[in-house]
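Notes from the 1:1 (GR / supervisor)

We went over the backlog. Supervisor wanted to see one worked example end to end before approving the batch request, so GR pasted a single chain during the call. The sequence is below; no edits were made to it. Supervisor asked that the structure be written out right there so they could see what the output format looks like.
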Amino acid sequence: MASSPRVRRARETTLAMLAVVFIACAASASALSSTSACACPTSGSQVTCAIENLVPADSSSTCDPGSMDADGFLDENIIIDGNTAVSSIDFSGLRRLGGALVVRSSKFVTTLRAPDLVETVSGDVRIEAAIGVNNFLQTIDLKKLRVVGGSFAVVGETHASFTSLDVSALETVAGYFNVSDNSNLATLNVKNLRVVSNEGEVKISGNKATLAVRANCGLESSGLIQGVVTDSNARARSTFSYGSVAYCSLCTLELSSHSIWENGNYYDGATLGSNALKAYNSSYSCDSTLDAAGILNENLTLVVNNQGATNGIRYDLSKLRHVTGNLQVTFELNEYMSTSYLTVEQCNSTSTPSASSIIGTPRQVQLFMPNLDRVDGKLKLDQHPATTLLSSYVCAYSPFDGCGRCPYTYSNAQLFNLTIKAPCAAKSSGLIETVVSSAINRVSSSVNYDSITYCSRCTCPTSSTTCSFRDMIPYSSEDRCDSASGFNAYYGAEFQENITVDGNENLQTLALGEAVAIDGFLEVVNNPFLVTLNVSNLNHVGMHVNLTNNADTPLRVHAQCSDASDVDFVRDLVVNEARRSSSSMTYGAFTCYSRRCRCTSYEGYECRIPTSFNAQYSYCVNQNCMQSTYLEPYTETDVCTHSIMDETTGIFNGTLVVDEANYQYTSYGNTFTRHIERSTFARLREITGDLILSRNAFAMYVGNYQQWYSGMTNPSNAFSNLTAVHGDLRILQTSSGGNQNIDFYNFSSLVTVGGRLEVSNTASGSYMTTFKAPKLATVGAGIAIVDNDALSRVTLDELNAVDGDFNATNNVALDWLDVSALTSVNGSLQIRNLATQARVHAPCDAQSTGLIDAVVQSTASRAASEISVASTLYCVQTKCTCPPSNNYCYPDQLIAYSNEYVCDEDVYDQATGHLDADVVVDGNADLWYFYFDSVKTISGELRLTSNPQLSEIRLQALTTVGKSLYVKDNGASQWNGVRAYVSQCVSNAPISYAVNASYRSTSAFEATTLYYRSEYLTDEQCFAPPAPPQPPAPPSPPP
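Structure output shown during the call:
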């Protein structure tokens, strides 16, 4: 690719200045060696270059990457020139660089990252493309770079994916700034660039014609060049070409088209944190979003117009705590007719129309900002500002006829009606004095409104004997109680108010059992006849709790079991320690509620776990749970609400029970099946209580289980992502019947059972014939696999420790028990009364002493232990082969190579693509197709030899074979030989990239034709795999 004269000029400029830069480096930073020049390796297999990989650039240079100190300072030059060996440069951890960072003519580098780099003390930062060739650089990450002690340049990058350059933290460049001839660069962010000094110029040209530049706010009047270039001659040399440039950041909120009905009015709404922030108009940018702490690093202007004036506007800024810029509400007039203006003379001849005739009916505007703590800029919330300029369509007849728009100035015009919900702290001093941090900005701030309320506090009507959330009213005329009337436990059980019930002489029952959380405080005091307080679901109070001086002796509190004393109640509910110290409770009796849920599944529905806080949910105190398709309390003294499941973490905070008596039901004369909804159950990561699966739970599980097949990504099945059950895992009384879709629960991710593991009373005829947990390592309260008629296989091949007894008895069909990793049983070990041919796969280390003596910890427990099975296998190799009489071979269908070996059905992990075994297929006369296209890694060897009908081998995903890979002498009966599919078209594929060097001498791979998976994910023939690339020529020494 020929380079343009402009690229050459840019390159010549930077080359000419390099010697000057090094002289400056040496002069200004004496610690920097004059011979310092680090570079990335130019040979070897290292594709990513990090700080620790740096080497001297040539024989005359020095480089010590190990000298980088704990603060990330490296006193070296980094000059990467003409490197063709690495494809990625990642200097993570480097915060300050003593010299220069230069990457030039290294065409195969796709990514350059120095994400922590803040400063180059006395050197350049320059990224320069190779001239006349295709360059592959797509990503530059210098987002924290603030100070460059020399020049800054990104020149000549042409890759189609290099479209954006973000150096938004960059403030000072002590040389020139050159971002030029990057043909696809569409956005450039230099919003903090303030100084380009030392006679350095700015050159931004030759990039994409539509280049959008974000420059420093405050430079809009002078322009970028005049604003940042300090030398007048350098300003004259500077060039700035762009499609658009935005200097200031000003955001507004996108209004939702869905109207809210409240108190007889419709409101168009926008919620900060939910609705999109956007630039106020094309002259501004809007780069930030509201962060998790409620900080918005922008100016924010909320627009009120007179369009659709019958609808009000509601701006909800409840999540906002701090605005670093200005916060204002502004009025915009919609001009429905001609926008052309009359002359001044014509306008002066007209009479001034009333403001109301232009505005129409003022819109009702609600502004919610109850949590606002700070505004660093100005606060302007004016419904009738001192002066307003409005334009109106009028007709003039002097000095000549014409119709158009004329501007008019109005004093104190009512533009809209503003209602504000302000923070409580502003009640005494006012909104401006409380939140505007600067005294200067307070002077120029203004707030006027129709009404303002400061605090949110609810109470019960004095005439009520029973009070719930929906009955509550404002505590006083200065308070709000907004959440009460709309509170709905089915759509979110968080009450977002403070509650004070004080001195109510009629109240007997306070029914707050629907709430999971109360955001504010809970004060229930001085109510002489109050005998019942129901907070059975409550697990969080944002502020303090005060429950005192009521009818204390007869008062009964209904709450969760963990809160069974006044101390526990306060400790568990009040998260903040300071709030906890100001809390107190007195009462007479306590009813204990546990967090336990039963899965329900009724006609036409699936049983599912609610995985969103606002998901519709049937709260069973007030609803008939027989109509629910979610969960219900397990007993009358259990609770089960939205907070039982945290969708973000996947933690189910309680006990989960599935114990349906019948998996079938009849409707309109037809028989249907009930099942659990696999995708919501797949979101489970941890269960803090017990998991109980009983009766027809397995039939419901199987009914919606998705089988894996070749080429499919890992399906999301129930329990497949569950890593921990902190209580018991109990599988009880599994019934016969259902579909024969799968024979086990998929606990493929389960690592820990904190309580007891029990599998018992599986009925004869049940399709659950296998229990396996291939990653389960520890069980905290014993194992009981007992009295199962149908169970034939139990695989616990990663189980290491059992705290308690291990009892596997009276399982008449159980013929395989794998505990091959077991090292410790802190109790007795009983394995007896199994199938006649039962085998136990024990750890190899236990062979000399026997399993009981090797793993049972105490003498007394060993005396009470017994193993009575047909055989105990100790040191058994896992070696698999393809089933005989099958034309196809898949990784999930392998069998033991012979009776001397084992090959459990769990050797292949579909989720990771790992196959943990040796695979040997030799002399199989029926095998035509070997389909391992989803296998990524094999722990042992892979050997395919002397299979006469074998015509196709698929290994497109294979990256690693732990031992030898030997494929030879296959397809003797196939006239067109053997087709093989691999992932890379390289010399000696796939041995060269999948087999460790120590095993390559015993490996071979023969195929008639070879195909590889291309970058377009298609299989293409590999005609002549290229030889390894020649080592690159040594780089030129730095100027």
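Supervisor's comment: The two ends are 26 Å apart (CA to CA).
Batch request approved.
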